[in-house]
Each structure stands twice: as structure tokens, then as C-alpha cells.
Amino acid sequence: MRLCMISLDAVAKPDADRLLRLPALLALKEDGVFCENVKTVYPTLTYPIHTSLLTGCHPRTHGIGHNQPFQPDTEPRMRAWYWSAKDIRVKTLHRAAKEKGMDAASILWPVSGKNRCIRRNFPEVLPLPGESPVLKMLRYASPLWILRMELQYGKQRKSIRQPDLDDYAALLCEKLYASRRPPQVLTVHLVDCDAMRHQYGTDSPEAHAAMERLDARVNRIVEAVREAGLEQETLFCVVSDHGQQDAPNGILLDRLLREACGARAQSLGMGAYIYADDLTAAWLALEKNREAWGIGRVMGAEEIHALGGPEDVLLAVDAAPGHCFIDEPGETRGEHGFNLDCPQARTLLWLKGPGIRKGARLEEADLIDIAPTLARALGLALPDAEGQALKDVFI
Length: 395
Description:
It is built from 14 helices and 17 strands. It is an alpha/beta fold. β9 and β10 (271-275) form a beta hairpin. α8 (164-178) packs parallel to α10 (205-227) and α9 packs antiparallel against α10 (205-227). The two termini are 15 Å apart.
């Protein structure tokens, strides 16, 4: 059994009808199992969720509670992200596959840099101002393979921005399956729709066009597997992480809190973690300024940890509708980082392949159940997983 896992960033339950009018995603639904009601994890950020997809654990357990470590005294544009797989505290599907002797490849998957369990690795790594994109990628990726791909196909990539980068990701997937040693496990993260929604808004023509491009890329990858003669032994898993909401009112919450009581805020987008020496003073400041600061809800440690949030976060807020929390002044459109009661926190899952039911629809699922389901299908061990295999998907 092989695994081809494709993540569609920033699509969710409200997008299901539009996506299922597209040919590749409709075919996957009709030939396998589909669920449009997958409960994602808190916080609804890309890096924590994609780590949950690989581990079957909540962020409090796997250790990736945000896209970035908390760096309050670093200029926002210079802040590092969780780029390295070493930051994950539990076993991943990549590691489990390696232990079973399976060959893994990964394209633009978050928190996968410097991962020795991935033989051909092109991780999501963002160059900070002043850094060389090429040198940084070589430090975190599989350098010889990346260099070979760049020499052979780099001229076909128009830029490192979206949608060009996703087009290159799909091309690399095609070349992997056409190689003499196709990967037994492939994970690929497609970011086009997330980029368009952040830039243009959630219901924009640009976002709708991105969904059509995502479907075309899924088709390219499925066709590459078919042309390699591997379709009958491949489990296809297409997932999403979160949706987005329009939030045009950006609030500089960190600045406001510092001035009010000396506390600090780490933005989640439509939420924020609060760090303070005096939690009571911070709570009172948040409650007092709830309307002026665009706060919808204040949460204490018990509620945060019940959601599966990081163990070191003792105070957090959700933004009121239409608001988001930002680190620097600027225009905002589509955002996420909302709580799990938002419709856009219900995500999507397609499964198709050997041993998977055909034409079945799951009423609901939990995102932390996806990795254990894939592990069961591939005969892998994920002893740290908090989720359980979805029994209704198997024949």
C-alpha cells in the first residue's frame, strides 16, 4: 500500500458545494469516502493543523501551538517559524513510514524541514529579509535532490509566489511518480487558495479561481499515479485545514495591551494568545476594552486546554466578527485563527483506494482521527496518537 496525501489549504465546509462541482474532487468523492464536517484543531493555523494531520494529536501534545514561536521582542517580519521537524514532540507518519522501511517524499509540507525520515524533501521554508531563498532551502531540504530538480525544471517555475509555487509543487509530484523509485508515501501542501483569500477576500473571484486550480493540480497528481501504474495500490487522502472569514478591521492588540497593563499578545489572526505576569490585570483590561478592541470572547487556561491548545498558554481571546488581531498596521481581508465553533473550522476529507468504501459519506469526523486512519491502512504504528482510526471508511 502507498499513500498520496494532498492538503488543500484554506478550504472548508462552506466551500464543499463549489469544490464538488469540480471534476477531480467530484471523482474522488464518488469513488471513495467523503466528509464535509471534519472538526479541525485549535488554533486554526496552518502549522499546528498540519502537524496534527501527521500525528493524530492536538497541539498541546505535539508541541506546535502556533505557526511561530513566541518572539515578542523581534520585529514581526523577522520572526522565525516552526520550520524544523525536530520541534514536533511525537511520532509522525513520516517517521513511522521510515521505521517500516518505506520511502517518503514531501512537498511544501509545514514543519518538515531537516527531516531525515523524508528522502526527497522540499519543505515549506520562508526566507526572512536578508536571507537567500536558495541557501535557506538547501539547509532545510534534501539538497542534492532539490538541486537536481532545479537544474532540470526550475525554469518552468515563474516565481516563488502563488499560484506559481503550487504549479511547481504539482510538477515535482509528477516527476516523483515518473521516477525510477516513486515514493511510497507522499505528502504535498497546496497553498494557492489560502494566499488568494488572505490577499483578496474569502468570496473573491481570485479565491474561486484558486479552487479551480487546486482541482486541476489534484488531477495532475492522480493522473501521475495512474500513469505510473500505481493507482490500484495507492490510498489517496485529500484534506483541508481551515477555512477563512473576512475580517477587514485589524486591531493592534499587542500594542494596546502593552500600553494598558504590560501584557503581550501573540496574534492568531481572528484570535490571540495573551502572555502576562499579572493574568488578572490582563483579563480585566481585555474585558474593560472588549468592544473597542474587537474582542468577542476571553478564555482562561481551562477552556484553552480543553480545546487542545498549548499547555503554556493561560489566557486567550477570540476576535469579534469582522475583526482580527495584527502585529503591524495594514489592510486585512481573509483571515483564520478563529475558534472551533465557526463554520469554517469544519474541514474536508476525501479517501479513495484499496480497502476504502466507495461512494460513502461520513456525517462527521475529527481531524486528529485522520493520521490513525492512514496508519491503520498502511500498517504503521502511531503510539502517541490521541485520535482513533475511522472505522466507517474501510470495507
